[in-house]
């Protein structure tokens, strides 16, 4: 090969190598472009968008709670909060001082928020600086927007209870959840229905807590969101693609009647104050606590439930959103602390705290309100005394058992109407404790009522030999067999509702309702419906749930009902123990007074006053409502609890029987009448 041919071939080889390299580079470049543009295009696009977008959670409104007539008991108020979000730039000292002046919070609180933001695992969750901003604060933040990087204002619904203390023990209260805008129910309906609800039929529906939404907002280099117009201009359809609307919590419709509920609360609080100031015997009374329940006897639906003292759930809701640096925080926190760490005493003895629902969480001896049970037990055994002489004492086993008065010759009606202990001492001995306990069990006394809507119900106790042995041993592990043994004297005490009996007001209301409706014991309930918050469609509706029918002949129940009517009436020669309370009532009520002795050795008068009733109870009428009221250390049943029950019944019947159409007016007038004349007839 000559030199020229060799040189030509070398040039050709170099050109081919160069062309190969160019082709290979081109293929690699095109492949990379394909990967970037086609395979990873969407991912990289989102990544790029993420550099200028920020996810914002949209709090879901908590579900509303309504009464049976649609009155709002719990809802949400629109409000705005100031938050700090993460930005690379952060706040400089001058910005912190400016922000401190606008929000009236310390600079140290802002620095703590910045530090918290830096260590948060989820950077898009902001740190709240201050809730419930005033219009002036919102305006000032907007005017200084350029000087406050990372400071944003977002809407945040606040839990609100329009009735303040109305139905507080039923509704419960909320506390702060895991996120700065989140609430969780801590007690009452707010707690029971906080999350998803498992229905008795197996389905699950959303509870009061909704599902938060989210949206993407365009932010500038300092983390400040741009306007909505800019967001749509830059994001186009993506703005809506990434937006997830919040889903509000479900709406709950309660069985409560706000009119009767309000009457119960006001009458109970008012009566307790009156008892403390009364100058006639046995008062002035300590009257430290009280509770009341009203039930629809036809269904078991709870119409009213209250406990004294009470609290304002708005204070808990406000505390949940307030930061400790907020100048309003101390006052709100002080109220909540007092509610939770209640330490009030009256005349040297503890008053149960306002957050405790005594209607389900406090069991007390029922006193003479138990006597219908003793009478039914004796009827079933065929040993009901035709009559007895009440001379003020009953002699048994060498001891005189006291009556609260002298009633002369009494039959069953008068023994109920005048609440004669002597008659029921003999009746209880005739029936025996086993028969008494059997009837009481059928009426649900000394056991959980089956209420599903509230937590914290206590069982109480029904006096039996086994219960006595257990309670005595629990109180004194060193007690002797003799001390734990059941004696005939225990039967005497149990026959008149003393001794080892202890029932809650809700149990007493259920028992009274069963007496009224002919013997059906219904499960009490508070939630009537769960509704879709947006369409109003009923997702679930409660139905009456009969737990049992008492095994007692109708004639016996009717005999008891007729005897209980005498309690509120002028019976031609003698008055029932609650005649003074109901003498002006335009309808007929059946009732029973009860005074449960809290300890005769106590220097103070500690008798608890009970009253149970149902109405209407006139000839041919079908009862609709049953009530149970108790006032701790209130002195006596008719005196302490009677006026409260009368106010509740008149509020329920407002507009009927010639009563004022306004339930508030009807209840107020009833309370005045009942309180003025409650003591005109001697009673227990």
Sum up the structure in keywords.
six-stranded mixed β-sheet; 684 residues; alpha+beta; five-stranded antiparallel β-sheet
Describe the model.
The chain is of the alpha+beta class and 684 residues long. It contains 25 helices and 28 strands. 39% of the residues lie in helices and 18% in strands. The protein starts with a helix and ends in a 7-residue tail after the last helix. About 1% of the residues have low confidence.
Structural category is alpha+beta
The largest beta-sheet arranges its strands as: 7-3-2-13-23-24
The proportion of strand residues reads 15-25%
* Biggest beta sheet attributes: 6 strands, mixed
Low-confidence segments, ≥5 residues, pLDDT <50?
228-235
Roughly how many Å apart are the termini?
139 Å
Look at the structure and give the mean pLDDT.
89
In helices, the fraction of residues equals 25-40%
Inertia-based shape: elongated
**What would you report as the Rg, rounded to the nearest angstrom?**
36 Å
Instruction: Give the number of DSSP strands.
Output: 28
Helix count, DSSP H or I runs of 4 or more residues: 25
Furnish the topology, listing elements before pairings.
Layout lengths: L2 H37 L1 H10 L2 E6 L6 E2 L5 E6 L2 E5 L8 H11 L3 H13 L7 E4 L4 H9 L7 E5 L2 E3 L7 H4 L2 E3 L6 E3 L2 H5 L4 E2 L5 E2 L7 E6 L9 H8 L1 H5 L9 E4 L3 H20 L12 E7 L5 E7 L4 H9 L7 H12 L4 E2 L2 E2 L7 H4 L9 H11 L6 E3 L2 E4 L2 E4 L5 E3 L1 H6 L3 H11 L1 H10 L22 H11 L5 H4 L3 H8 L9 H13 L2 E3 L4 E5 L6 E4 L4 E4 L4 H13 L12 H4 L7 E7 L11 E8 L9 E7 L5 H16 L10 H15 L7
Parallel strand pairs: 2-13
Antiparallel strand pairs: 1-12, 2-3, 3-7, 4-5, 4-6, 8-9, 10-11, 13-23, 14-15, 14-28, 16-17, 18-21, 19-20, 22-25, 23-24, 26-27, 27-28
Helix pairs in contact: 10-24, 10-25, 11-12, 14-16, 14-17, 14-22, 16-20, 24-25
């Amino acid at each position: 090969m000559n030199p020229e041919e060799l040189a030509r071939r070398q040039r050709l080889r170099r050109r081919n190598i160069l062309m190969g390299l160019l082709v290979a580079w081109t293929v690699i470049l095109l492949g990379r472009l394909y990967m970037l543009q086609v395979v990873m295009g969407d991912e990289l696009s989102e990544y790029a968008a993420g550099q200028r977008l920020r996810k914002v959670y949209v709090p879901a409104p908590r579900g509303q709670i309504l009464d049976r007539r649609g009155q709002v008991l719990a809802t949400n108020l629109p409000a705005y909060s100031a938050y700090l979000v993460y930005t690379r730039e952060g706040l400089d000292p001058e910005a912190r001082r400016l922000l401190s002046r606008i929000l009236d919070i310390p600079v140290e609180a802002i620095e703590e928020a910045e530090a918290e933001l830096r260590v948060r695992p989820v950077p898009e969750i902001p740190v709240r600086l201050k809730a419930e901003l005033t219009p002036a604060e919102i305006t000032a933040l907007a005017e200084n927007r350029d000087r406050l990087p990372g400071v944003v204002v977002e809407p945040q619904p606040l839990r609100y209870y329009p009735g303040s203390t109305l139905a507080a023990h039923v509704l419960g209260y909320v506390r702060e959840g895991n996120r700065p805008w989140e609430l969780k129910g801590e007690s009452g309906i707010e707690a029971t229905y906080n999350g998803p609800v498992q229905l008795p039929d197996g389905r699950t529906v959303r509870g009061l807590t909704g599902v938060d939404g989210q949206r993407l907002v365009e932010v500038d280099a300092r983390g400040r969101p741009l306007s909505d117009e800019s967001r749509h201009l830059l994001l186009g359809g993506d703005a809506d693609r990434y937006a997830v609307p919040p889903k509000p919590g479900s709406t709950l419709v309660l069985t409560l009647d706000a009119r009767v509920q309000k009457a119960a609360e006001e009458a109970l609080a008012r009566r307790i104050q009156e008892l403390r100031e009364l100058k006639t015997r046995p008062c002035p009374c300590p009257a430290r606590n009280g509770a009341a329940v009203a039930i629809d006897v036809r269904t078991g639906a709870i119409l009213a439930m209250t406990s004294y003292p009470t609290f304002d759930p708005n204070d808990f809701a406000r505390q949940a959103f307030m930061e400790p640096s907020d100048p309003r925080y101390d006052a709100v926190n002080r109220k909540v602390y007092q509610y939770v760490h209640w330490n009030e005493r009256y005349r040297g003895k503890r008053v149960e705290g306002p957050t405790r629902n005594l209607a389900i969480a406090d069991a007390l001896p029922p006193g003479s309100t138990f006597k219908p049970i003793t009478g039914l037990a004796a009827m079933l055994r065929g040993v009901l005394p035709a009559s007895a002489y009440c001379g003020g004492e009953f002699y048994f086993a060498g001891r005189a058992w006291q009556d609260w008065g002298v009633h002369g010759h009494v039959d069953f009606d008068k023994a109920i109407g005048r609440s004669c202990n002597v008659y029921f001492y003999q009746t209880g001995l005739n029936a025996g404790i086993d028969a008494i306990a059997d009837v009481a069990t059928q009426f649900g006394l000394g056991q959980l009522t089956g209420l599903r809507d509230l937590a914290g119900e206590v069982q109480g106790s029904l006096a039996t030999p086994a219960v006595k042995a257990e309670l005595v041993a629990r109180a004194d592990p060193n007690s002797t067999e003799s001390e734990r043994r059941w004696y005939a004297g225990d039967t005497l005490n149990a026959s008149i509702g003393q001794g080892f009996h202890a029932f809650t007001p809700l149990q007493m209301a259920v028992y009274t309702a069963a007496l009224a409706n002919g013997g059906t014991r219904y499960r009490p309930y508070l939630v009537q419906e769960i509704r879709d918050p947006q369409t109003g469609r009923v997702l679930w509706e409660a139905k009456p749930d009969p737990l049992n029918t008492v095994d007692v002949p109708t004639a016996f129940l009717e005999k008891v009902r007729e005897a209980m009517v005498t309690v509120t009436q002028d019976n031609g020669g003698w008055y029932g123990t609650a005649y003074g309370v109901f003498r002006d009532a335009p309808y007929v009520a059946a009732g029973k007074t009860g005074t449960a002795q809290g300890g005769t050795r106590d220097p103070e008068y500690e008798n608890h006053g009970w009253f149970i009733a149902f109405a209407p109870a006139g000839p041919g009428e079908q009862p609709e409502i049953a009530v149970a009221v108790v006032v701790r250390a209130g002195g006596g049943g008719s005196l302490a609890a009677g006026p409260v029950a009368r106010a509740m019944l008149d509020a329920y019947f407002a507009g009927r029987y010639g009563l004022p159409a306004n339930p508030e007016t009807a209840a107020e007038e009833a309370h005045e009448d009942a309180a003025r004349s409650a003591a005109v007839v001697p009673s227990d």
